[in-house]
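Sample pair:
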Amino acid sequence: STQSTGSYESVLALGKIAFRSNFEVRNVVHKALSYILLAGRPSNQSAETSDLYSVISPIISLLDQISDLQTSMVALQYSSTDDGLLTFFQRHETLKGSIGLYCRLKDPMKFKLLGRASRPLLEKAFSIKSGKKSPVPTTE
């Protein structure tokens, strides 16, 4: 139906906004999508509610993973090992690829999921990974 198409498009738009925004906006979108899920959980779920859940659930999962990555970044800013930095870099790149399924990134090589604060860690991890002193691209 037209209403369900609008619902899906609205959820996807919220996901795009969250994926391209800062922590505070991501948190608001996460809460909004979570409330939508809670509101649609009666025992007699309709097919439309079930379909909407299948659209919302992966977006919430990605937002949770981004939040976990943010926590890792904060910890790495205080104490980092090469393995920790490489793990952070790999998680960042994997999440960036997943987000690319929902929204087009203008320049995926330069996009930093956690903004400027993550740049020094990503540059250091990239240097370790490549065995060079060459940093990742520096614009956002």
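The mean pLDDT is 85.
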